[in-house]
Specification:
With about 375 residues, the protein is mainly β. It has 2 helices and 29 strands. Strand 28 and strand 29 form a beta hairpin.
């Protein structure tokens, strides 16, 4: 399928304080206390579509059922986004249009149930964008529903009660409203896209999926390669694996994530980054939802964003961790901007979807770790 997306997609922008204190949390026992050794479950495979317009690539999936509604006939595709956490879904076509206005969803009381979806009178706004110049805002309500994600008969999963943002409007910084379902996102990171006034929050739907006995909650995604990207989108079964084994964890370079109050475990890690022979430390996120550009946040850069010339070498090493990644810019691939955080409004360097073409990515929701692997 084809659909027009903004060129710069869906990095969750939040105010990230440079805290260096790891928060501990209570955890359920990984193993039951029994003399009977249970059979370990098999990890679940989850498919993705890989599309390439020749200008930018994207990976996506679908919602096939939400609440009591089967929506397989609708074009409700979701951007698969490692740079945000939570299902963000448009209310249009899901609840009666008479309930949706430009200012909100109309109902009385603290909550209402429509088409199997419980909507609470808890509002929030989520901002997406790579910097202050590309920010868009999504306005919605806390909702809960059983949700089926992915291909119903081939690599889909059902979560019986998933919290998500049911939004009624998405608009750019100038107030221009986007088309219905333009900002439907499957954010799979361990951060909280938003925390509502009642302290409920939304985070990765995968974190609510039970992988089965003996497996840790989390997912891995091996290098995507380039062979399956096509104009109309090629379905790749098993692109994502849900449920982690000990061998999975040992095959990746793992990085402990920090807990930020109200934001959860944002998948941001420090790296030593070098371009054009210049080296400095920057917080970095690896984001399937940003394409075709990467964004380097250099505090010593000039006041205007600069596009790196073709054949510019860029490399990074995670600190701590020691994972390395390098590339050279070109006119069509690995296109990279350098910005000053004072000008861009963000202190987080963004490595785009290009990273995932040749490298593996993992999130362990149990121990709150991020894994990277060279392929």
């Amino acid at each position: 399928m084809t659909r027009a997306y903004p060129l710069k997609l869906f990095l969750r922008i939040s105010v990230v304080l440079l805290l260096f204190v790891l928060a501990s949390c209570s955890k359920d026992s990984k193993k039951s206390n029994t003399n009977i050794t249970p059979t370990q479950a098999t990890p679940t495979k989850f498919g993705l579509y890989e599309a390439d317009s020749s200008i930018y690539k994207l990976v996506y999936t679908f919602v096939t059922k939400i609440g009591t509604q089967d929506v397989t006939s609708a074009d409700y595709d979701l951007l698969f986004d490692t740079g945000s956490g939570g299902l963000v879904f448009d209310a249009h076509g899901i609840i009666p249009s008479s309930m949706i206005t430009s200012n909100g969803i109309t109902f009385s009381g603290d909550s209402t149930v429509v088409n199997g979806i419980t909507i609470y009178n808890q509002k929030a706004t989520i901002s997406y964008g790579d910097d202050t110049n590309t920010t868009a805002n999504v306005y919605g309500y806390l909702a809960y529903a059983p949700v089926t994600l992915g291909e119903a008969n081939n690599g889909g999963i059902t979560i019986k009660r998933l919290p998500f943002l049911l939004y009624y409007k998405a608009a750019d910084t100038k107030g221009n409203v986007y088309a219905d379902h333009e900002f439907d996102v499957l954010g799979v990171s361990s951060e909280y896209d938003t925390t509502f006034p009642n302290n409920a929050y939304i985070t990765s739907p995968f974190a609510y999926f039970d992988p089965g006995e003996g497996l840790l909650k989390g997912f891995k995604m091996d290098a995507l390669g380039t062979n399956n990207f096509s104009l109309n989108g090629t379905y790749v079964p098993g692109a994502v694996t849900l449920g982690l084994t000990s061998s999975d964890l040992s095959s990746y370079t793992m990085h402990q994530l920090t807990y930020y109050p109200g934001d959860g475990y944002a998948p941001i890690i420090p790296v030593s980054l070098t371009y054009n022979g210049k080296t400095f430390t920057t917080n970095t996120i690896f984001d399937t939802g940003t394409e075709p550009y990467s964004y380097i946040q250099d505090p010593t850069a000039g006041s205007s964003a600069v596009l790196l010339p073709a054949n510019t070498p860029v490399s990074l090493t995670t600190t701590p961790g020691g994972f390395t990644y390098s590339y050279a810019t070109s006119a069509a691939d690995n296109i990279t901007y350098v910005e000053n955080p004072a000008q861009s409004g963000s202190n987080v360097t963004v490595m785009s979807l290009e990273f995932f073409l040749n490298n593996g990515f993992m999130l362990d929701y149990y121990d709150h770790k991020l894994g990277l692997k060279n392929n």
